[in-house]
Every structure is written in C-alpha cells, then in structure tokens.
Amino acid sequence: MDTWSRRKFLTASGVAGGVALAGGATAWGVSELLATGSSAGGDSEASTLVLVTLYGGNDGLNTLVPAADPHYRDLRGALAYDEGEVLPLGEGLGLNPGMKGLKKLWDDKRLAVVRGVSYPKPDHSHFRSMAIWQTASPSGPVPSGWLGRWLDHEGGGDPLRAVSVGATLPPLMAGETTAGAAVRLGGKKLPDAWQRACTELARVDKDAHPLLRRAGASLADLAKVSTAFDGSRMTDREDPNEPRDEDDGNDGASAGGQGELGAQLDVVAKAIEAGVSTRAYSVSLGGFDTHANEKATQSRLLGQLDKDLTAFLERVRGTQAGRKVVVAVYSEFGRRPKANANQGTDHGTAGPVFVLGDPVQGGFYGDQPSLTDLTDDDLRVTTDFRDVYATLLHGVLDTDPGKVLDGHDTTLAFL
C-alpha cells in the first residue's frame, strides 16, 4: 500500500512550484472570499463547476452496482449487494443503498453516470494515478494541472477564478502562469503585528529584482489570510484528516482527502449566493482506500457524499447562478473486481464518474465494463477521462478543450 504525502504527490504530479502549492499558492479566509461577491448576488449568467475528489480509490462496482450479474456475486462474495438492496437505474445496474438522494436526481434526469472511466495504461499507485487525473496527462508529468491550464488561458490572472476549499491547493489548479486560491476552513487570522509587518515587506518597487518582487507578492498573499466566518463547522483546531508530510507517517485510508465535505460545500454555496467570480471549485472527501472491511466503511462514506451533495444542490437552486452549477465526482481509480481475503478490495482501474446538476442531461454514458473480459484481473477502460474533462471545459467553462487538454476535444452528450 502506498504511503501518501503532499510532497510525494506533488513530485509525482510534475507540477511546478510544489513548495508553494503545499502551503497554498494564494491563501484566503472564507470571509474575504465572500466579500469579493458582486452586489447582484448569485444572479450570474456564468456556469460554475464544482469538482469533488474522492481520495483513496472508490470502489466503483459497489457504487454503481451490477447486482443482476451473477459474475459480480461470484467475484464479490459477502461484499456483494443483492438486487433487492440496490437502487435500480436500469440495465441491471443500481446505486449503492446509501445514495437515495442521487437516485432522486437520476429520476429527475439531473444525474449523468459515465461508466468505465480511466486513462490508457492505468496505474495502481495512489499518487501517480491522482497526478494523472489532476494534470490530465497520462503520457508523463507536465508542469501544470488541467484547471490550472484553463486559468492560464481564461483566468485573466485572477486566482479567485478557481478556488480549492481546504488547507492546500491541489495540483489540478496550478497553471504555468496562474494558480488558483486555497480557502482554509477554520484558519486563524495572523496577529495584527504580523499583518502590519507582512504589509510593509510586501511593498516592493516594481523595478526590483524579480525574486524580490515574487517574495513581496507572497507576503502580500499571506497578509490576506483571515478568520473563517462564524458558523463554519470546522473549529480552529488542526483538521485531523489533513494529509501529513511523509515524515509524519502513513496517512492510511484517508489517502490525501479531507473530512467535513458538508462544510466545504457550505463555503461554495455561500460564495455562489454572494456572486463571487469563481468559476471552478475543488472540494474533497477521503477514506476510500478500502483494503479491509469495505462494506461498512464505503457505505458510510457514500451516504455522507449523497447527503452533502444533494443538500448543496437543493440549496443553490435558490439562485440563478446556482441553477447553472454542475458537480462532477471522481476518484483516482476503482477497485479490483474480486474481493480480497480481508473483506475488502485492492487497487483497480476504471470506475464511474457522476455529473449532477440542473444543466445535466441525465442517463448512462459510456459502456459498462465486462466482468468476464478482464485485463490482468482488472476492469477494461471504456471511457477516456479526458472526454469527461473536455465536456466540462466546453459545456461549463466555455473553453475550447483542445487548448487545455493538448488537442483532446472529444466530448460526451451529458451537457
């Protein structure tokens, strides 16, 4: 099992500026983010993308369950769900029993399920696979994330066009010329003396050496950190689910994700309602590395995901901007079809991607991987992950996907 760390992940991703990213390239407090909203509030005509990362490798076969397939029950044994337990979607497939909110979205034609999603020659390493997903570069490391490249092309130098809610900025939001902003939950404001010192030191003459100007800009960003708004469900303590550096030991099943998904989505909802200019948000949930005792763990996590996502979508539908929100949910890989000896599953390949929201054309997209035609005991990939990204770039972020995805512009019909 891989040991996760921010340093190792950033190195594997190939994204430039790893040291800066580990601390958040541009740090903001939640109240400061909300203060940038327009007077019109959440009435923007622009669409908004909310990207949800499930860290650890979510088991796709027990999320989108082929319960009618006898081969599934043969492979999974006690981990298998019966047909009567799952929430039926058709074609012999059903949602995990804990995902009743997503089932309602499916019935309302507001949930698209993209099946068999991964990249060519899938990798079983957490950090290598996540680096590929976040950079959209399966052929090798590149110096930017896919939303970072969108920022380079379309962001106009504004880091608030892409916001990660959490203590660190993920590589997916690091461009070569522009990086997004990290908004930490429960962050403490710098003492006044430090605020004044940072402000003074940030005043660097425009003719100064480039490195001095860069240091000044970093200090100016640091001075922007503010106390989180009242009512956040996070406290001022350190987030226990925040990934540690490799010197601090194994992150275990958390595998780099955060807890408190509802609190993260609460920030996103408030920003949308306030008319903040952000077009893309990143939130995350960890804990999906289910090598043992999977059924109870995954059921709990999927129940939390379902509850928090459906509450978020119902809330933002109250504004014009919120009705243009599209949520995409992915994980770095699925799990192996066959259960292991510990009532869990090991690192696999393809899995489903969920796309939710009012603009979504609900239904199935891509083929369901066969359980009898495996590659080295893994599911075959039926949908290239870049097809999903290209669709989101074109349909939500109004961008030519070829400019961001190195010429890849194949789209799907869910938007």
Written overview of the protein:
α5 (100-107) crosses α11 (294-316), α8 (192-201) runs antiparallel to α9 and α10 runs parallel beside α11. The radius of gyration is 21 Å and the shape is globular. Strands 1, 2, 6, 7, 8, 9, 10, 11, 12 and 13 form a 10-stranded mixed sheet that branches. A 3-stranded antiparallel sheet has the order 3-5-4, covered by helices on one side. It is of the alpha/beta class. It has 2 domains: 6-189 and 225-404, 3-Layer(aba) Sandwich (Alkaline Phosphatase, subunit A); 191-220, no CATH class. The protein contains 13 helices and 13 strands. Residues 233-243 have a biased composition (Basic and acidic residues). This is DUF1501 domain-containing protein. InterPro entries: DUF1501, TAT_signal, TAT_signal_bac_arc. It holds the Pfam family DUF1501. It comes from Streptomyces drozdowiczii.
What are the salient characteristics of this protein?
single chain; 415 residues; alpha/beta; Alkaline Phosphatase, subunit A; 10-stranded mixed beta sheet; 3-stranded antiparallel beta sheet; globular; disordered N terminus; TAT_signal_bac_arc; DUF1501 domain-containing protein; TAT_signal
Mean pLDDT: 83
Catalogue the unreliable spans: 1-24, 221-255
State the share of residues found in helices, binned by percent: 25-40%
Largest sheet: 10 strands, mixed
Tell me the strand percentage band: 5-15%
